[in-house]
Amino acid sequence: MNINFIDDIIERLTQLKSDAYDAFGHLNSELLNWKPSPEEWSVAQCIDHIIISNEKYFDEINLIIAGSEKQNAWKNIPFAPKLFGTMLIKSVNEEPSRKQKAPQVFQPRASKIEEDIINRFQLHQDDLIKLADSCRDVNIFEKKVTSPVMKYITYNLKDTFTILTSHEARHINQAKRIIQLEDFPRS
Q1: What are the two backbone dihedrals, phi and then psi, of residue 154, each rounded to the nearest 5 degrees?
Q2: 20 and 169 Cβ atoms separated by less than 8 Å
Q3: Is 35 in a helix, a strand, or coil?
Q4: Distance separating alpha carbons of residues 44 and 175, to the nearest angstrom
Q5: Which own/partner contact pairs does 74-77 have at CB distance under 8 Å and 24+ positions apart?
Q6: Radius of gyration of the CA atoms of the chain, in A
Q7: I need a labelling partner for 128 at 20 to 30 A (CA). Which of 20, 77, 106, 118 fits?
Q8: pLDDT digits over 58-109, tens only?
Q9: Which residues pair with 146 in a beta bridge?
């Protein structure tokens, strides 16, 4: 089960990497940073948000792989990780039913993002794929991860990878909807 799940996650991450490049790799800085309105994100901000969000988990996952993860009391509450994992998976559904404001810790770094954001995403995705591949011998059902937003929210490593891939798909879809808008500048 562990190996099949990791294979599926790697396949999904690889597909998302390809989707992002195919959809946005040809866009210049102006198009990547175009916003439908001042309150909404650009394509570049969507991609930057994915990178920022994912990277918040890297250190803890690396500690789990090394066998030196930090423990906290919240990880030991029997029902909490399953409950929180299920709730978060539903909240980052690829096709959201409603808008959600990203927590401050996950906000894009700037309103104007450098043109190399798609290349940075490609490299980031390679790092995430390597991280997932390194979890083949880890019990992804038992190992717990703490939310970067709230320390009392924990979920297992399997749910963490499901959350990350669903979240990526959600924001790549959001960015695709931006370039499909009637007002989006055509080059």
Answers
A1: -130, 155
A2: no
A3: coil
A4: 8
A5: 74/146, 74/151, 74/152, 74/153, 74/154, 75/144, 75/146, 75/154, 77/154
A6: 17
A7: 77
A8: 999 999 999 887 766 555 565 555 655 566 657 676 665 556 666 555 667 7
A9: 154
Q: Mutual orientation of helices 117-133 and 43-66 as an angle, nearest 10°?
A: 20
Specify the residue for token string 């906290």. Answer: 72
pTM, whole model, 2 decimals?
Answer: 0.86
Q: Is 95 left (phi over 0), alpha (psi -120 to 50) or beta?
A: beta
Q: Give me 43's structure tokens.
A: 């394509």
Angstrom distance (rounded) from CA 70 to CA 98: 35
Dihedral angle at the C-alpha atoms of 130, 5, 8, 13, nearest 10 degrees? Answer: -40
Q: How far is CA 12 from the centre of its chain?
A: 12
Structure tokens given for 100: 């959600």
